[in-house]
TrEMBL record:
Residues of the full protein shown: 179 to 402 of 402
Region (Phosphopantothenate--cysteine ligase): 11-224
GO-annotated cellular components: phosphopantothenoylcysteine decarboxylase complex
Homology family: In the C-terminal section; belongs to the PPC synthetase family.
BP-aspect Gene Ontology terms: coenzyme A biosynthetic process; pantothenate catabolic process
Function: Catalyzes two sequential steps in the biosynthesis of coenzyme A. In the first step cysteine is conjugated to 4'-phosphopantothenate to form 4-phosphopantothenoylcysteine. In the second step the latter compound is decarboxylated to form 4'-phosphopantotheine. Catalyzes two steps in the biosynthesis of coenzyme A. In the first step cysteine is conjugated to 4'-phosphopantothenate to form 4-phosphopantothenoylcysteine, in the latter compound is decarboxylated to form 4'-phosphopantotheine.
Domain called DNA/pantothenate metabolism flavoprotein C-terminal: residue spans: 6-218
UniProt keywords, alphabetically: Decarboxylase, Flavoprotein, FMN, Ligase, Lyase, Magnesium, Metal-binding, Multifunctional enzyme
Protein name: Coenzyme A biosynthesis bifunctional protein CoaBC
Binding residue positions for CTP: D99, K109, P128, D129, I130, V131, F146, K160, K164
Lineage start: Bacteria, Bacillati, Bacillota, Tissierellia, Tissierellales
EC number: 4.1.1.36, 6.3.2.5
Organism the protein comes from: Keratinibaculum paraultunense
Keyword Lipoprotein part of the UniProt annotation: no
GO molecular function, one term: FMN binding
C-alpha cells in the first residue's frame, strides 16, 4: 500500500464560510467552521500532494506544510481558485461561500437614528457559483463538491452533481445530530457521476477526509 499516492499532484481545497460586508462594522456570514476542508487539506498533504488551502474566515489552525490563502468574500475565493486552477489536478470545494452579497457596501456605518427607521432593507445580489464555473471548464481535473441539505438530500445532491459537472459530491444532512457545520463528525453519502451512492455512518471529519481522498485517488488511477 502506497500512502504517498498524491506525490506530484496539486490539490486545491476550499474551506470555511465566506463573509460579505454591509458597512464598515457589519457583515453577513454562515455557520461553516472550516473543519471539513481543513481535514481534507491535511489528509492530502499526508498523501504527498502539494496542497493549496483557500480559507474563508475561521478560528481553526491550518495544517502545517500547506499553502494557505486567506479570503473574505465569495468573489475573493473565486479569484483565489482561479489563480490556482489551471495548474491543479484536483479541486475539492468544501467551503460554504455566501450565495448572495449586499449590492452596495455602505462607506459609513448605517445609523438607526431617527424615528420611522423601523425597517431596513438590504438588497442582496447573486455571487458567482465557484465550483459550477470551474466544473464546466475542468478538462481532466477532478472536481469534488459538497452538498449540505436539510431535506431531499440525495435528490438535491444529484442535481448539483450534474448541474455543476462534478466528478462526485459529498452529501450531508445538516439536520441530523452529529452532522454538518460545527460538529467534529459528519454523516455523509458520496454520489458519483456514474450514479453510485455510498452511505456512511457517523464518522470523524478526518475519517470522512480519508474516504474523500480514497475516492479521488481511485479516480486518478483510472485516468493514468
Ligand atoms: O450552495 P450549494 O449547496 O449549491 O453548494 C454546493 C457546492 O457548491 C459546494 O461544494 C460549495 O462549495 C459550492 N459552491 C461554490 N460557490 C458558491 C456556492 C456553492 O463553489 N457560490
Amino acid at each position: 500500500f502506497n500512502n504517498k499516492q498524491l506525490v506530484g499532484k496539486k490539490v486545491v481545497v476550499t474551506a470555511g464560510p465566506t463573509m460579505e460586508p454591509i458597512d464598515p462594522v457589519r457583515y453577513i456570514t454562515n455557520h461553516s467552521s472550516g473543519k471539513m476542508g481543513y481535514n481534507i487539506a491535511k489528509e492530502a498533504r499526508d498523501r504527498g500532494a502539494d496542497v493549496v488551502l483557500i480559507a474563508g474566515p475561521t478560528n481553526i489552525e491550518p495544517p502545517a506544510g500547506v499553502e494557505v490563502v486567506r479570503v473574505n468574500t465569495t468573489r475573493e475565493m473565486f479569484d483565489a481558485v482561479e489563480k490556482h486552477f489551471s495548474s491543479c489536478d484536483v479541486l475539492i470545494k468544501a467551503a460554504a461561500p455566501l450565495d448572495y452579497r449586499p449590492e452596495k457596501v455602505m462607506k459609513e456605518k448605517i445609523k438607526k437614528d431617527s424615528e420611522g427607521m423601523e425597517e431596513l432593507n438590504i438588497k442582496l445580489v447573486r455571487n458567482p457559483d465557484i465550483v459550477s464555473h470551474f466544473g464546466k471548464i475542468k478538462g481532466d481535473r477532478i472536481v469534488v463538491g459538497f452538498a449540505a441539505e436539510t431535506n431531499n438530500l440525495i435528490q438535491y445532491a444529484k442535481e448539483k452533481l450534474i448541474k455543476k459537472n462534478l466528478d462526485f459530491i459529498v452529501a450531508n444532512d445538516i439536520s441530523r445530530e452529529g452532522a454538518g457545520f460545527k460538529s467534529d463528525t459528519n454523516i455523509v453519502s458520496i454520489i458519483d457521476k456514474e450514479g453510485n451512492i455510498e452511505d456512511y455512518p457517523i464518522l470523524d471529519k478526518n475519517q470522512v477526509a480519508k474516504i474523500v481522498l480514497d475516492k479521488v485517488c481511485t479516480m486518478l488511477n483510472i485516468k493514468s
